[in-house]
Here is the input.
Amino acid sequence: MTSVNAPMQEVGEAGDGASMSIDGWHNSIARNLNSAFYITKLSLPHLRESSAGRIIMMSSLTGPVMAIRNDVAYGATKAGMVGLTKSLAVDEAKHGITVNAVAPGWIQTASQSISEGHEGGSTPMGRSATPAEVGAVVGFLASREASYLTGQVIVIDGGNSISEQRTVR
Here is the structure.
């Protein structure tokens, strides 16, 4: 079994549609979306030879599922990554290759800010995901047991995207 994990950096210039610089927009696309395509393009010949390859994209909750203020480029690139996932899944199925994406929410890492930790605490699960929890989903997607699962986005967010939080009750 061959596995390709294409994690993308979650950095880029923040801004809304009016304030985002053209260079910031292009840099975000290059960092998040183009790099996913380039890694995949370079991997496809080997994966096609194996007839059982796996491509796993690291998307995000932001973009394909939810939006946050002042982060137009990041959300657009992560939503674009989901489109890339689905298109590749259709094209590569005939070669025995599955293509899926994971869309994590808050993840407890060394780089998680205090405010991000608080946001993770406001999910229905009451905490951020651990890297091991995200890794377990990626491991399953890379396994033989996931050989019929393709073109899907697996959300790992502790129920954050299904819970409507209201400030006024």
